[in-house]
DNA sequence: CTGCATCCGCCTCGATACTG
DNA sequence: CAGTATCGAGGCGGATGCAG
């Protein structure tokens, strides 16, 4: 075997250099030579990852972003979008040729954030609390929740699809081969259809309410093959056995 | 097939409620009923995810965290740690029974952040720039980088291990069966040993420098089976063909 | 009306000093 | 060593103004 020797170069580790640092654009940055720190230099400011979340579900107008991010303030949204565009995460697209700047959408680089964002969303599901009066809920967040909940190890062994109606949003899970994907819009011939409101949807996804309880409460409607319902719940890691106690958080 | 009907309940979506909101502990929060927003209510403040990064590589003392997070300031670190402890992401551990509170470590909940954090770190690798004079580098960040770079689809078909010496840090990748894991400390009998400094290690990981170039520059030393070196580079998504141009960022 | 820019009060952040 | 106390600077949140 091989004996290790120190390399010819000595460490170039930069010593502790206290004091706040600025990144290229004059912004505040971590100045750590590390992938995570670099990612947070771009995504770590307040609201930024929530902007990315919105754009992960398709292009959005400035006003739509404002409406779905209550509290952000117009200057902040403009600054975040400009920053993301400058760094190649987001681009502006004109629907009409007349340069009326209609929408923002993620670039390929931005799309590559999907697994990391879904991972954070899945982790955060354990921390959603009781629905408070001041909480905002949007039905299209249910799409992200479903995408994050899909357990690749529990994909049913045959093709089918489950359709979801969350308030006005319609999307479905398509099981094809050994993969399950979340897709916007209705399914061709779903084996199950779940209909509910956005708040209940998140409560089910977070485990605060079981599908069983939600049905009893009249807040969730399940139609189609009962076996498909069970497979769908299993795919999403939802309780199907009984009532299941609400975890004490 | 099934025809969809609106559920008995109407949407309980909370309307736009402008104004800054506070979360439980009196802190500023997003107040969105969504997994990602909940995650960011805990992890989204400045420095928090970098604290988690440090703890992902094992327990750390307060002073060690301070030293590896230049610029954080003592009050911020104390506040972040207290907040994470309160929310069950981190716990304090006593090495001695004498309650001298020696270290912080992640709870199981905190450990579940690993895939999301690694995902962000991998994404951010494309954004690490030229090494600047004010940049901090730490050799143990190389461990995280390697963990993030492992491509599960490119695991060699037989068991072996690759050892890395990054400044004073020693860790290895263990390929067993069809999985590859990054493990702290030396390997039993590595088929390859790479020795380098922390800055070069990150530059290689980010694609700014190829292993080939680094060897020529005398900043990287590779020992052991040449075939193993190629397999290791392939596993980590590193260029082995030739010099490969440095991407323009 | 949409898509920002400007201004202002406040709270978080970053640095230093200080204490058990 | 492990934090707490304090204070100035600046990022953030909210209201308003304005151009296309």
Give me a quick take on this structure.
The structure is a homodimer of 249-residue chains. The first copy, chain A, is α+β, with helices and mostly antiparallel strands and 249 residues long. Helices cover 35% and strands 17% of the residues of chain A.
Keywords:
homodimer, 249 residues, 2 domains, 10 helices, DNA-binding, five-stranded mixed beta sheet, two-stranded antiparallel ribbon, 9 strands, alpha+beta, Nonspecific Lipid-transfer Protein, Chain A, Arc Repressor Mutant, subunit A
Description of the molecule:
The structure is a homodimer of 249-residue chains. By secondary structure, chain A is of the alpha+beta class. Chain A folds into two domains: 2-112, Winged helix-like DNA-binding domain superfamily/Winged helix DNA-binding domain (Arc Repressor Mutant, subunit A, Orthogonal Bundle); 113-249, SCP2 sterol-binding domain (Nonspecific Lipid-transfer Protein, Chain A), CATH 3.30.1050.10. Chain A is 35% helix and 17% strand. Chain A has ten helices and nine strands. Chain A has helices at 35-43, 48-56, 62-68, 74-86, 108-111, 114-124, 141-149, 198-205, 211-216, 226-235, and strands at 21-22, 28-29, 90-93, 103-106, 160-166, 169-176, 179-184, 192-196, 220-224. In chain A, the strands form three sheets. A five-stranded mixed sheet of chain A has the order 7-6-5-8-9. A two-stranded antiparallel sheet of chain A has the order 1-2. In chain A, strand 5 (160-166) and strand 6 form a beta hairpin. In chain A, helix 6 packs across helix 7 and helix 7 (141-149) packs parallel to helix 8 (198-205). Mean pLDDT of chain A is 88; it is low at 1-20. At the A-B interface, helix 1, helix 2, helix 6, helix 7 and strand 8 of A face helix 1, helix 2, helix 6, helix 7 and strand 8 of B.
């Amino acid at each position: 075997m091989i004996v290790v020797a120190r390399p010819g170069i000595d460490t170039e580790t930069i010593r502790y250099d206290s004091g706040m640092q600025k990144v290229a654009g004059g912004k505040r940055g971590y100045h750590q030579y590390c992938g995570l720190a670099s990612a947070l230099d771009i995504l770590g400011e307040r609201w930024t990852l929530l902007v990315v979340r919105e754009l992960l579900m398709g292009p959005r107008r400035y006003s739509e972003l404002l409406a779905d991010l209550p509290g952000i303030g117009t200057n902040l949204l403009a600054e975040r979008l400009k920053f993301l565009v400058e760094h190649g995460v987001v681009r502006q697209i004109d629907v009409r040729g007349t340069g009326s700047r209609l929408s923002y959408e993620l670039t390929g680089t931005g799309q590559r954030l999907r697994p990391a964002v879904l991972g954070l969303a899945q982790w955060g599901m354990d921390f959603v609390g009781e629905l408070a009066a001041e909480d905002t809920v949007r039905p299209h967040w249910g799409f992200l929740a479903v995408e994050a909940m899909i357990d690749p190890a529990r994909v049913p062994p045959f093709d089918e699809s489950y359709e979801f109606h969350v308030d006005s949003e319609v999307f479905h899970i398509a099981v094809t081969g050994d993969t399950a994907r979340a897709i916007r819009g209705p399914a061709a011939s779903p084996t199950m259809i779940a209909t509910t409101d956005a708040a209940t949807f998140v409560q089910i996804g977070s485990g605060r309410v079981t599908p069983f309880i939600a049905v009893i409460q009249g807040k969730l409607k399940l139609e189609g093959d009962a076996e498909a319902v069970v497979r769908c719940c299993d795919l999403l890691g939802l309780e199907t056995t009984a009532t299941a106690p609400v975890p004490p958080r």
